[in-house]
Amino acid sequence: MDLARLTGVLRSLAIYRLRPGRVRRMARFYGQFVARGELAIDVGAHVGDRVAAFRSLGARVVAVEPQPHLARLLRLLNRLDRKVTVLDCALGAAEGEATLRVNRANPTLSTLSPDWAGTVAASPRFPGERWDEGVAVRVSSLDALIRAHGVPSFIKVDVEGFEAEVLAGLTYAVPALSFEYLPETPRAAVDCVWRLAALAPYRFNACRGEGFTWEHRFWLGPTEMATWLARRPLEDGGGDVYAALRVPGKR
Questions:
Q1: What are the pLDDT digits (tens) for 132-141?
Q2: Which residues of 206-231 are buried (b: 16+ CB within 10 A; e: fewer)?
Q3: What is the C-alpha to C-alpha distance for residues 26 and 7, in angstroms, rounded to an integer?
């Protein structure tokens, strides 16, 4: 592994896996959606912080990670855990192959979307970011994963601007899921809202950054959530949108 890639992996481990109490805090939050014995799918698993949180809840996990060196790391970290399945592929609307644009120094920004990379590179919030390698990766779909592994209680999708394409490959109305949003690319997140609204009567909420606290006191309909996403200023930063058929507390 070259120095830039190694530095990027160590940076991600320090941010996402080594902060005291982080996994416990995430587990308390995801416990609203995931129970022991259920299945969680982590799309864009990166270094596996969500995998660790889901496993601490007793859930089975399918972790999807297209970056080869991160998929190997996930297999190493979970080598003794038979309830974690690591898939070294990307997800999209249909099965095939695509080029992953890799940011070796900051692997969490690696993406299948060249438009997303260009927009983010021009943002003052991401100075100096470079996508300096292209890797051909296999593409599967959420429907294919569900046919192979079962219907999950929760799906987390964090794929740097490719979220709408991932959700285009889902035709099952799963109980709950999340997808990333950035104020630089509101259209991508709004497309996800309308994709899910067409699939089932989902309600929506959001968490800014990695705070794991609800942004809205009451869960929103798709029009309200789309409007909120379209109005995010850059200084607010990004976060995750959550969609649920039954909002927490009413499971």
A1: 999 999 999 9
A2: bbbebebebbeeebbebeebbebbee
A3: 25
DSSP track, 91-145:
E-SSSEEEEEEE-SSSGGG-BS-HHHHHHHHTSTTSTT----EEEEEEEE-HHHH
For 239, the enclosing helix (H) or strand (E) is strand 239-244
Please state, in angstroms and rounded to a whole number, the distance separating the CA atoms of residues 44 and 111.
Answer: 10
Q: Kindly report the number of other CB atoms within 10 A of residue 34's CB atom.
A: 25
Q: What is the pTM of this model?
A: 0.94
**For residue 39, how many other CB atoms are within 10 A of its CB?**
22
Query: DSSP of 138-199, one letter per residue?
Result: EEE-HHHHHHHH---SEEEE--TT-HHHHHHT--S--SEEEEEE-TT-HHHHHHHHHHHHHH
The string of pLDDT tens digits covering residues 53-90 is 999 999 999 999 999 999 999 999 999 999 999 999 99
- Taking every pair of C-alpha atoms in the chain, what is the biggest distance, in angstroms? 49
Q: Could you give the CA distance from residue 78 to residue 51 in angstroms, rounded to a whole number?
A: 9
Q: How far is CA 109 from CA 88, 126, 189, 218, 231, in A?
A: 17, 10, 16, 31, 23
The span from the CA of 241 to the CA of 14, in Å, is: 25
DSSP 44: S
Q: Which of 150, 203, 155, 198 is nearest to 44 (CA)?
A: 155
Q: Which amino acid is at 173?
A: A
